[in-house]
Amino acid sequence: MAKQRSKHLLPGFGLTMGISLFYITLIIALPILAMLLKVAGMGLPEFWRIVSSNRALAAYRITFSSALIATVINGVVGLLLAWVLTRYRFPGRRILDALIDLPFALPTAVAGLVLVTLFADTGWYGQLLEPNGIKVNYTQLGIILAMTFTSIPFVVRAVQPVLEEVDADFESVATTLGASRWQVFSRIIWPTILPAFIGGCVLSFARSLGEFGAVVFIAGNLPGLTEIVSLLIFIRLDEYNYEAAAALAFVLLVVALATLIATNMLAAWQVRYVGRKS
Amino acid sequence: MVGAPPRSAGSILLILLAFVFAGIALLAPLALIFSFALREGLGAYFAAIFEPGTLHAIFLTVVTAIIVVPINMFVGAALAWLVTRFTFRGQQLLVAVIELPAAISPIVAGVVYLFLYGNQGLLGPILQPLGLQIMFTPLAIVLVSLFVTAPYVARELIPLMRQQGTEDEEAALSLGANGWQMFWHVTLPNIRWGLVYGAVLTNARVMGEFGAVSVVSGSIRGQTNTLPLQINLLFNDFNIAGSFAAASTLALIAVVTLLIKSALEANVRG
Lengths: 278, 270
Prior knowledge:
The structure holds two protein chains of two kinds. Chain A is mostly helical. Chain A has a single domain, classed as MetI-like fold, CATH 1.10.3720.10. Chain A has helices at 13-41, 44-51, 54-87, 93-100, 102-105, 108-118, 126-129, 140-150, 153-165, 168-176, 181-210, 213-219, 229-238, 242-277. The radius of gyration of chain A is 23 Å and the shape is globular. Chain B folds into two domains: 9-38; 42-269, Orthogonal Bundle (MetI-like fold), CATH 1.10.3720. Classes of the chains: A mainly alpha, B mainly alpha.
């Protein structure tokens, strides 16, 4: 598949190609192929029966709607955090910046344990919310908050570098020419950061769709009410219903592939955008 | 762009909002872990840590990281070298395939391994008569950990090496260095911080992986229970103090990860 060209001056093409192909085949491609074969072997009617069952449909609905709401929250908050971190100098800025990555560094099981404890009826937040009739643990709200927590950094980290690059000269020229601050934002800043913003949202959404560890602790896992797709897969495995697990995992795999393609296209869009500007 | 001190009331309000959100959503959860872990005193805390199940989970988690991190550092460096130093057909595809594990749900990562090495899997029925049981052993945990962290090092190194270009390496070669000398004395010093950063992220994910490991490990107490699984197990046993003690070890690693990341970024930006 690879063709070495004469312009390769540096050594190591064969060696690194060998290592990479061996690793990718053994660690990534072969396991995915094994699952695809399993799905291909079950036949279309059986596959369709599993992925369109009522319980599966309910799980998609809960997973997608929760991930969507979590992504909207993270889009708004992420934009705010990125803006504050790039635009202002203030005491505690470095700490705030470092803290943003906590959800990536903290294992999801720990996040789940913490959230379920925070929102328990005697917990730090639960004792404030429960008397007001807001129940988080074992409801869809808990799923949404768990998904929100584990994907906080995506939008911030996608938008931050682009916001740092937005040319301050454009802004000052626009202001000199009489543009209001809102016009500067909506006409200059927003179009520039848009591809990165959408890219961050897509990653955040994809992560939320697949989130398992944090959700399992807080969701209560009631079929049709708080059962997400990854959990349904896990339950099918526990029941030794491997076909159902494979079919549902295939659905999540296809969604993951779609997000991967979407983020690559958005990255290309971003590059064209920046190229056109300069 | 270098930020300025906030001037208007609006900008101060935005900063306050950011701090309030960070306090509620990030700082309080972190504080809660240590507060609950140490609630019954240091004695009870260490007793919970040294409980045999938890101690074995710590051991298994550390051993897994010691195996997985160096392998993925090595492969990540090879991948980054291949992708940034040569042009070949299928290059885009290669990069996309490496990124695939990061896009996949951890549960799906576990499931694909089950269908390779499990009883019902592709290779499981062939390997088992040979006495090679992979599923539900520490080896399965290592393999699935390699899978979920496959892109981490390459992802840090590829932009770095692309930006650095090849002049230094070409100069070393023209001065008579061989390939290995060039790598050790020119490439490695140039990419060391990126490599360290990738390794730190890999380590954090390996030690904390829950979904994928819970599918392939079988969660056998005292045998294939890693720390995140142990936290879940203790929580389900209503042993809250024990689960927070176990969680505090991983939270500590998360805090160290953030500190290293912050220090490396300051280092890179100068």
